[in-house]
Amino acid sequence: MLARAARRKLRRDAFRSPTQLAEQLTLPWLCPAQMRWAASVGPATTTTHDARRPRHGALSPRHETRSLATQADVQHAHTPTIAFDGLIQPWSSRSIHSPRMARLEPWDPATPLVLRESRDPPTTPSKFGIGGDPIELYQNLHACLRVGRMDRATAIIQRLTTMYSPTASEVVEAHNAYLQALFELAQQDPEAYSMATIEEWYDSHMVRKAIEPNAGTFVVLLRASMSLLEGNTRHRSLHKYLAMAEARCGSDVMDAINYSEDFDDHEWDALIRAQPDRFQEPPVMEQPTNKAYPIEMSTPLGTQALIDANILPNPAHSVKEVPQKGEGLIALKNALAVFDQTSRVPFPHEMDGSQDEKERAFAYMRQLQLEQDATEAATNRWKIEDEKLQELGIHGVLKTKPIQALMWQWYSALLPRLQKEYARVQQVLSAPTPQNQSDERHIYGPYLEMCKPEKMAAITVSRMIQGVAIGRKEHSSDLKISQLSSQLAEDIRNQSISDAKEKLLSARKKQRKQARRAMLDSLSLQPQGTKPEEKPTTRIAELPTDSFLKAEVPNAVKTRIGAMLIEHFLQAAMITVTVEDPKSGKTLTNTQAAFHHHVGFANGKRTGWIVPHQEILNKLMREPTHSVQSVQLPMVFEPKPWTAFDEGGYYTTSQAVVRLKNHDQAQRAYAQSAIENGDMEKMFTGLDVLSKVPWQINKDVFEVMVQAWNMGEGIGAMVGEKTGPTLPEEPPQDASAATKTAWRRAIVAYENERGGLHSQRCYQNFQLETARAFAKEKKLYFPHSVDFRGRAYPIPPVLNHMGSDFSRCLLRFANGKELGTVGLQWLKVHLANLYGFDKASLHEREQFAMNNLHEIYDSAANPLTGRRWWTKAEDPWQCLACCMELKNALESPDPTRFVSRLPVHQDGTCNGLQHYAALGGDTAGASQVNLEPSDRPQDIYTGVADLVRSMIADDAAQGHRLATMLKDKISRKVVKRTVMTNVYGVTFIGAKNQVEDELRGFFEREDETTEIWQAASYVASKIFLALGKIFNGAQEIQYWLGECGERISTSVSAEQIRRLRDHLDGKKKPYDSKYKNPKSVSKSLEKKIVKDIEAFKTPIIWTTPLKMPVVQPYRKPGTHVVKTKLQEIVVSRNLGNAAIDKRKQLQAFPPNFIHSLDATHMILSALKCNEMGIDFAAVHDSFWTHAADVPNLNIILRDAFVRMHSEDIMGRLAAEFKARYSGSMHKALLVQSSDAAKKILAWRRAQHEGEASARGARKAHKDAPFDELALEAQRQDLLNSEDLEMREQGLKMVTPTSIWLANQDPSSIASYRLARMGESKNTAGPKLDEVKEKLITAEAEHVTGELEASGTLANDISDADLLAAEEEMEEELEDESPMKTGEKKKARSRLTSTTVAVWLPLTFPPVPKKGDWDVSRLRESKYFFS
């Protein structure tokens, strides 16, 4: 049915009269059965251009002048012209993806992507800066090869060889990287390096040392043969290495060589022709012509004079600047200069092709220019400011010198210092001696050489000023040495890797692979099926090799580079301060340091800060600044499709497709493995769909905004020039101490509010400047990426559609659609929604617009000089945009034929609760969040407020003091924030604070603070109770998620258990098998091994319906101290195998899981919209499209939600958990008075017979040592043995785990975590016990049934041992002093004194039974999204 929607003509009722369609706003057409379609599809055509030119002579001995006809280097074909008659108007940049992308394809949750657990790697002592763990060595190798430090690279490879097993893939990867570097150097300097150099390394370092080559090795050797040799020598070398590859490595490696994307077209042509026994002769393609395609700009087009391209700035768009002393606005203008300085990018008139092709090439060239680093432009601006002052005779006087001029002065002083440092680094690295062995330049030198001193100096000055400008508060984290040094080094790294040539070459390689596979399939003379197939997802996958982070810089190196730059900056940055002598009246001048280094204490820790001179501080602090120098801007050319973890979006800068929280390595490893398996295909396609929607600046609204801005108006979110709080009046001298204290607090609040408003106005200044620069662009784009849960966000942060009303109103779709009759109606509904009239029926909303038509016309025609009706709207600027669009449509000859570009929003109703209601099958909850059909939109916030008011009224009738006080004060606004955030894990304290903020207006006296707190707690508890009554089934789902999360976060994996057993058996291997393990283990290393084995390191991981793995990144980071000349700096180490943060893992799991479902719904909807030819944009749970496409979008949104929740999402999650955590054990806490706990204590007492029965020993019996875990693992091995005698031995064994299995009692498991939706530790009551016992009892029955079926019921202990344990427990209770009345003990204290720990198999309760609500009823709901 949806497929037919993509092919339909204009709706049959598109031109019916409004009266005939008045009743259609009840949306009967949302029912698929009532829709009929007509089909008409045009053919799709594809045209490609290849601008590649041969780099050298013909490589093939068979055909010297022929070139292979492949699509290997074609970047983007011209977009097919696909006609969706009546549904969309074709546009050239549109790319319609396969319908398969929008389907939810089944996958087996029993075989999820599971990466083998990592261990701490070995480390090697540092000598001449070469040392550390393997990952750091790989990063060092990568840096050395990039800057041509081949001698150091040789030493690093030798060090890696001593650490790895010879068969480890990391060893051959290191050699391949070295061979590739030799090859590139030989191409640049044939006299210093040659084919003989490459062959000598291969023979002496690989062949003789028995390091097995792989396909990558032979690819480099073959490419070097083609490039560096001539004639028959080249021919013989080619055949030698091809024969060697086949003889030593087999056909799989041969196929990998032939499919390799590293060969360029001509090299690959020679490779295929050199194998006539394997392949037919490839076809010939024409030599490249002068038709250049914008992606492949190998011939510079900027040599001719610019011909006017009609992109000169409009004077009416000049934006009044906010006075600010920082460089943020200047840097932004420099970055946007490509739009104003038309001479920077010439229009490609000489290029062959159509005008559209030329414009796309022009857009691409300007996009590359836009992405280039603005550092040089910034330094030029600083220089100009300083030269102006020199001309005026102003020399270094601080009070009159703009900050840009000071920055040039500091830059000029810093640059020679860094040039000397750069030369010293080269000297130390080139001539290592015993005298300079400890020089830290050996450590950071190769990384420093990747960036030029000029750019380092500019980045340092900019980052330091930014840190001071943002870090206004004393001891701000922005001024910490540790943070500044890390940020500086990261800026240097980003600068060094922003190489357009490398990025474009990488993009071409990605696209060659598939084309070459298809070509060789048709040319192969071998039987089909011999080529290597894609490996299926395995049960346990290997972690990415240690080289996968090679482009990163170790934290310790970052810190050293940053500290060095800060040190030089402190010595270079000087200011001239002028003061007036109070006695003589003369003006005195003095040169002083602009910044100094200060060491103090923060939170009990010794910390270093950069402290600016007070005069600098005054100069900057009066005018807050934001630096956007390195910020990403919207694109003027279609973003690059995502093809790898860091390949997509921008063309010359790297962006990660998954935004890593806390730089979590585990999330990156899972994401990369999923990408390699093809699991992220739909996610990548969805991001490409979102990224390639073309936008425009809404010029009409922009001009009104600029006019209001320049007048200093404060309308809606726009901060007026004079907007701000009133300065509190200072009290008289004889005022009381309390009055003066209150005044000082008011002054602090005044300064904070004033500074915040000014900061906001500065940011809005940036947004308007960005809009001004893009105002004449026909199309602009927002590349997207996702967070670790799969939620999509635009990468450009300054101006995008996810911003506030201020930025949203500035954007509209670049593609237009005729409104049609239904579109015109939706445009009116949209206006009512924006105004705030969104709780009425759709017909009433349309009527609202018609009733205010005169106001709409006045707003559009006279936005600032009329009655300003639009300014009273909830979203005033978007309302103004809608007024203008509606006026233009109604004034057109035929409003239904008006081409509209305004996005119309369809908003969900508390989207998280919608997912919970669907998961739990909650009929009541579904009706409250508009999943159930109704005549009017339901409002969950009003529903909860009504229920809370009812409960408070009942309490007030019984004389409750707080209830009587709050009886008429509970509004929708009071409960809204708590209801909204409850589904995302808000704590009771957080809810209380939210309610307190809303109730504060009812309590005006200071002495009522206690009453406010009590009232907020009372109302928060009632809100939780109301939610519990509405969402009953959802409560069980949330409890189940929490129970699973708690068990996972207190578990140890099967790999840890195996290592524990091996360790106790004397098999002490501290490292993975790919490393060389030491023959003996020191005490310190053994202690480290035990600590690693016994740590809770298992994060909560699940797979979204789109097969994206989600790894919760909450871990306890390690730290290490880096000694620099400046100070000792503590650096955090975010390792992928560090211990998890149990509290954060547990609290974040339910909301993150719901977020991942929300993200899936959005991506599915985006994919279907793309298939249907509908422009789609999303702001989490608010989806946008053209007014004419709203009916289609509504169908798509409902269909995607129904398809998602028609599947067994919770059952699939349970199956995945069972498979993913198979063999794990978790540490459970049993109530001490339970039978199982008593018997476990008795068993432990018997095992430690003869030990003193002191109180400390008895308490030790309550813990579960890891020895018991190893013992249970031994029992499981015996039970699973095929030897009957060993199985019998296992059946006779008794362990604490077997005792639990024989005495399972669901009520004996203790838990003090947050229980369910609508409850907390403070409010949990009988319903908690009911839900808990229901789930645990179901689990106990399931486990017991399995044991009975297998005939392996666990052994119990004797009655005598049980009696002795009970007597011991009574003695212990007598020893414990009773708690004082009213004493509150912490949850951890209660757990340790009243519970007994035991290791249990990591199993999960059965999924709660779903309610009887049918999700398919959603298709008939008019207000699901509206």
Structure characterization notes:
The protein has 1426 residues and is mostly helical. Among the domains are: 129-279 and 505-534; 923-1030, DNA polymerase, domain 1; 1051-1154, no CATH class; 1225-1376 and 1384-1401, no CATH class. The strands form eleven sheets. Strands 9-11-12 form a three-stranded mixed sheet. Helix 16 crosses helix 20 (555-572). The two termini are 22 Å apart. The model is unreliable at 1-93, 285-315, 392-400, 529-539, 622-630, 1314-1324 and 1373-1392 (pLDDT under 50). InterPro entries: DNA-dir_RNA_pol_helix_hairp_sf, DNA-dir_Rpol_C_phage-type, DNA-dir_Rpol_phage-type, DNA/RNA_pol_sf, RNA_POL_N_sf, RPOL_N. GO terms for molecular function: DNA-directed RNA polymerase activity; mitochondrial promoter sequence-specific DNA binding. One of its GO terms (biological process) is mitochondrial transcription. Residues 365-692 form the DNA-directed RNA polymerase N-terminal domain.
Give a brief rundown of this model.
The protein is mainly alpha-helical.
Q: Notable features of this structure?
A:
DNA-dir_Rpol_phage-type; mitochondrion; single chain; 49% helix; three-stranded mixed sheet; disordered N terminus; mainly alpha; globular
> Low-confidence parts, pLDDT < 50 over ≥5 residues?
1-93, 285-315, 392-400, 529-539, 622-630, 1314-1324, 1373-1392
Mean pLDDT: 76
State the end-to-end CA separation.
22 Å
Number of helical regions: 51
Strand order of the largest sheet: 9-11-12
Helix fraction by DSSP (H/I, runs of at least 4): 40-55%
Number of strands: 25
Please compute the radius of gyration using only Cα atoms: 35 Å
- Characterize the overall form: globular
Label the structural class: mainly alpha
Largest sheet: 3 strands, mixed
Instruction: Assess the beta-strand content as a share of residues.
Output: 5-15%
